[in-house]
Automatic annotation (TrEMBL):
Family that this chain belongs to: Belongs to the class-II aminoacyl-tRNA synthetase family. Type 1 subfamily.
Region feature Aspartate, mapped onto this chain: 199-202
Quaternary assembly: Homodimer.
UniProt organism field: Tritonibacter scottomollicae
Reactions performed catalytically: tRNA(Asx) + L-aspartate + ATP = L-aspartyl-tRNA(Asx) + AMP + diphosphate
A Pfam family of this chain: tRNA_anti-codon
Enzyme class, UniProt record, top EC level: ligase
This protein's name: Aspartate--tRNA(Asp/Asn) ligase
NCBIfam families: aspS_bact, PRK00476.1
One Gene Ontology cellular component annotation held by this UniProt entry: cytoplasm
Amino acid sequence: MHAYRSHTCAELNKSHVGETVRLSGWVHRVRDHGGLLFIDLRDHYGVTQVMADPDSPVFAEIEKVRAEWCIRIDGEVKARDESLINAKIPTGEVEVFIRDIEVLGKSEELPLMVFGEQEYPEETRLRYRYLDLRREKMQNNMVLRSQMIQSIRKRMWDRGFNEYQTPIITASSPEGARDFLVPSRLHPGKFYALPQAPQQFKQLMMVSGFDKYFQIAPCFRDEDPRADRSPTDFYQLDLEMSFVTQQDVFDTIAPVMAGVFEEFGKGRKVDAAEDWPQISYKDAALWYGSDKPDLRNPIKMQVVSEHFAGSGFAIFAKLLEQDGTEIRAIPAPTGGSRKFCDRMNAFAQKEGLPGMGYIFWRDQGNGMEAAGPLAKNIGPERTEAIRQQLGLGVGDAAFFLGGKPKTFESVAGRARNVIGEELGLTDKDRFAFAWIVDFPIYEKDEETGKVDFEHNPFSMPQGGMEALQGDPLAVRGFQYDLACNGYELVSGAIRNHKPEIMFKAFEIAGYGKDEVEKRFGGMVNAFQYGAPPHGGCAAGIDRMVMLLADEANIREVIMFPMNQRAEDLMMAAPSEPLAEQLMELGLRVIPQDD
């Protein structure tokens, strides 16, 4: 017999009754039923109930066993009584009578329990992550992650892609976030960078003639943490293709994404990839207040400025006299009660706004009436025009925000999400995908008037060099994101592969040719030797698993994540370097004032 096990803790069933078996695992829990000791023995694969009575030759040793001890047992498989069968687990028809036991590893008193679903502070969970990971939910999340990556790889290979690896120690990447710098021992005073993404290398592969590349790539960015973003590193499905248009990239990655979500989505609806809408960045901001809209929520915001211009509602009327301002409405079907409207007004105040105007429509017996302070101020004709534009009726409401769009769009988007959730309009049983396209390449700083890049500077401008001769703020790039349920899952672009267009694009943003060549010389030089048109994208592995696992925080699907302050509590990182290490690198740490 094997030194540790003849079967896993998920394999035994009625066909094994009468056999002598060997199992190894962790003591999930111990139950004492008056002289009968029952242990739920757990390994990575499942749970088997093992038991002993005073007739067992090792009963005294079994009495000493405690939760999370790692043990090996030998015993005889017995059928459970009909009334004691546990249909919830694969091994629920049998139990193992213990004849021998070996303690493989004792456990100290536990800082957190593995049995059950008790909540523990994040600090405790991350400090003792190896215990936290023993919990069933965490085991399931990590297996899901592994299976999903395996599925992605197969789907990419089936589409004719080859997997290649790119360097981890490299030069700074043009991704716009902070680099993690690595000092060079051989070149004192100089630094490598951990790659924010394989961006430059994958484009250089296209110049090298490799037609289709993909990689499950680690990426390193020194970023502020969020619930859906790691503050240090993450993994992405990175891909690039030559001789492709934007639509070619969509047609390649969309079936992969749809297939993965269908495979692991537990029966939730996934729209056919060819039906995913393509929404311009401008329309996404207008309709949803976000460039990663949650389309499970059917609410679309609309501009209603004309109904408030010159109206009796002085706040909006005066606002509209300023350049670049507008009023937007958030329809709220079935939200037509003063109680709900007051609740949303309180939400706006928590978001830092004075409030949020509203109108709701109610049945007065002799007809429909518009109610609320706004309705009284603008009068019945304007109110009725708003209702008809928004397609609302009795029992519905609308909320209003105004100003320069960039100052209130994000709040309006959050309000739209809250309204959809509270009114039960958001379809929870669905993954709703949408391509966001036509991103602006440039933006203007309103205080300084300086034009700079708003999005990826390496995207090919729509219209090429000709587009760069006019108003920079009108230039759109062949850049795109794929949004799903309110998260950005994919980001990509058709690349600017022509040096003359690239230099012009940077010149508009105030970057001279010398600076571009200094920062991105490897890529710019390569483009002078017959660069093919190429494009690609990257899909966030961690966010995909987070959505599929129904988790709200990305740390629930990462094996060993950092905390909110970018600290590894388990391994005590970051740590102070030894003096010898600093000396070898020619570095000195300057103490910071508290």
